[in-house]
Every structure is written in structure tokens, then in C-alpha cells.
Amino acid sequence: EKARLEAEEKARLEAEEKARLEEEEKARLEAEEKARLEAEEKARLEAEEQARLEAEEKARLEAEEKARLNAEEKAQLEAEEKARLEAEEKARLEAEEKARLEAEERARLEAEEKARLEAEEKARLEAEEKARLDAEEKARLNAEEKARLEAEEKARLEAEEKARLEAEEKARLEAEERARLEAEEKARLEAEEKARLEAEEKARLEAEEQARLDAIEKARLEAELAEQRLREEEERIAMLQRKEEEARKLREEEERLAQEMFEEQQEAERKAAEKEAAREEAQRKLEEETALARAREEAANRAQKEMHLKNQDLAEKEFQAAKAAEQQAEASVKESKSDRELEIANRMRDGALQRADRATINKDLADATVMRDVKVLKPVINKAEKKRVSGTENYLLQAKKLYEQLQAATQLQGATFDRRIADIEAAIHAIKKGGFETLLAVELLEAQVLLKKLQRIQKAALEVQKLSQQTIAILKSY
Rounded CA gap, 394 and 399, in Å? Predict the structure, then answer.
């Protein structure tokens, strides 16, 4: 009996030990299976998170590299554009300053020359008038003295002789035959001298016949008269010579002025030709720069559109994957049997919903950037900024950049249409500040050319307003 009892006790204990071991083994196996499943789920989630983080990091690095390259390209283009603009502005200012100084110097010289000629002409006229008055007064006194001393017949003959001589002298001056004038004058002087000698001889003979005192008085008077006439003749000849010299100088001055005018005309034509050549060269350079800017703009816009299309494709794929993950998570929630599986499925569903929300926002942003419409971009950007979902920063940045670019282009178009300098400068500053020089290269170049023209017009208007009345009078005289 004791042996039976011991055997039964032993069998019971062995059965209990076996059951306990089996229970423990089963619990261990279940725990290991559960741990394996949890580890696999955790590894999968970590792999997905790692892949997402790597994709985001790769996109961020690509965006940073692209931004750096764009910044370097922008800095280089800005430096080249700044150097070119400074060189052009310096050359233009030097040319304007040179032209202004030449114009002022020419105006000053012409004014001085004109004043000098007017002073000389006035002095000459005054001298001629004074000489004429003196000559008339002297002739009047001589005529009165002669009329008193001699008979009226002699005075009439002398007046006729004087009138004849003056007529001959006038004809001789009009013919401008100086040699003939000198020959005739010499002959006339010889004739007068001969007549004077004959008269003196006659007077001497008559004086010998007449009373000695009367003859001496008459000879003295005739000698004084002849001397007076000789002095008058010499003065007249000197005056004629001065007139001829003045006429020669006047002709030389006219020839010099004509030569200067001809040279100035040639210089003006040369400058006009150079200006036209410079304008054609500037137009050619502008066309080349416009073509280059258009090529850069088209390449940049093409690259931007390709990037937007690529982002749209990536966003679409991400959206489809997120939707599929969301459906799978929903199915996992429905198929969960234990609380642990339900908890894991709920976490997976929450992650899938978050990814789906992010993919939806990215897809909306990518679609809006492809459409390139300000009215579409603005509400999508506001919605993304309001939600602030992680992982949408790259698409949001591209959408905002495109929105700013379209706004800057619209602002520049309106400013160039209104032709207001301040608005154009503000629009150009906005484009440069946003880094859109390449994407809006043609519009920016055209606006800069228009701005230069408007600034030149404004500067000219200010310079005209500053002109004094004296300067305006000089310009009118020209």
C-alpha cells in the first residue's frame, strides 16, 4: 500500500511538473512569438521611418545644394551685371561731362568773340563818325575861309572838282582795284602838285606884278590851303587804307568763321556718326544680352517646370502610397484579435493617417506649382502654413518661391506699363531680393533699359529747369 501510494504520489507530482513545464514552455513560446512580432513590427516601422528620414534628408541636401548653386550663380550674375552697369554709367557720365564742358567752352569763346567783334565794330563806327564829323567841320571851315579869300567862281570850280574826285574815288573803291586806285591817286597828287606849282608860279608872277604884300598874303593863303588839302588828302588815303585793312580783316574773320563752322559741322557729323554707331552697338549688345537673358530664362523656367513636374510625380506617388498604407492600416484594425494587436494596428493607422495628410498637402502644393496660378497658389499655401505638418517644408518653400516670383513679375509688368521710376526700382529690387534674376531675366533687362531712359529724361528735365535766363538766351541765339 505504501509503495502504491508513493507511486501514485510520484506519478501525480510528475504529471503536475510536466503540466507546469508544458505551461511554462507554452507561455515562453507565446512570449517569444509576441516579442518576435513586436520586434518585426518595430523594425518595419523603424525602417519606414529611416527611409522617410533618409528621403527627406536627401531632398533637403539636394535643395540646399541647388540653393547654394543658385546663390553662387546669382552672386556671379549680380557682380557681372553690377560691374557692367557701373562701367556703362561711368562712360555715360564722362561723355556727358565732356560734351557739357565742350559746349560751355564753345559758348564762352563764341560769346567773347561776339563781344570783341561788337566792341571793335562799335569803336570803328565811332572813329569813322568822329573822323567824318571832324572832316566835315574842317571842310566847312576851309570852305568858309576859301569863300572869304577867293571868288565864288573859284569856290564853285573847286566844289565841282571835289565832287568829281569823290565820284571817281567812290567808283574806284567799288571796283576794289587798289593798284589802279593808288596809280590814279598818285597821278592826281602829281597833277595837284603840278597845278599847285603852276598856281604858285602864277601867283608869284602876279605877285611880282601886283603889290608885294598882296602877293605874299595870297601866296601864304594858297600855301596854307594847299597844305590843308594835302593833309586832308593824306588823311583820306590813310582812312581808305584803314578801311581796306579792316575789310580785309573782316573777310579773313568771315573766312575763319566759315572754316570753323565747316569744321564744327564736320565734327558734328562725325559725332553724330559715332553716336549712331554707338547706338547701333548698344542696340546690338542689348539684343545679344536679351537673347542671352531669354536663353537663361527659358532654361531656368524649363528646369523649374521640370522640377515641379518631378515633385508632382513624387507627391502623387507618395499620396498613392499613403492612401494604400491607410487602407492597409484600416484593414489591420478590423482584423485585430487581441488588444495588443489592436493597439499596434491603431498606431500604424495613426502613422498612415499622418503620412496621408502630409502626402495630401504635398500633392496640393505640387499641383498648384505646376498650374503656376497665383489664385490657386495662395489658398493652398495658407492651408499648408495653417496646418504646419512635418515633411511639407520643401513643397511649401517651392510654392512660396513660385508665388513670390509670379507676384514680382506682375509688379514689374505693372510698373513698366505705368512708367514710374520709383515703382520700377521697387519691382527690380523685389526681383533681386527674391533671387529671380535668371527666371525673369528678359523682363528684368527690359525694365533696366527703360529705367535708364526714364532717369535720363528726368535728369534732362531737371537740368532744363535749372537753366538761367542768360543761358536760355544764349541757346536761343544759337
Answer: 9
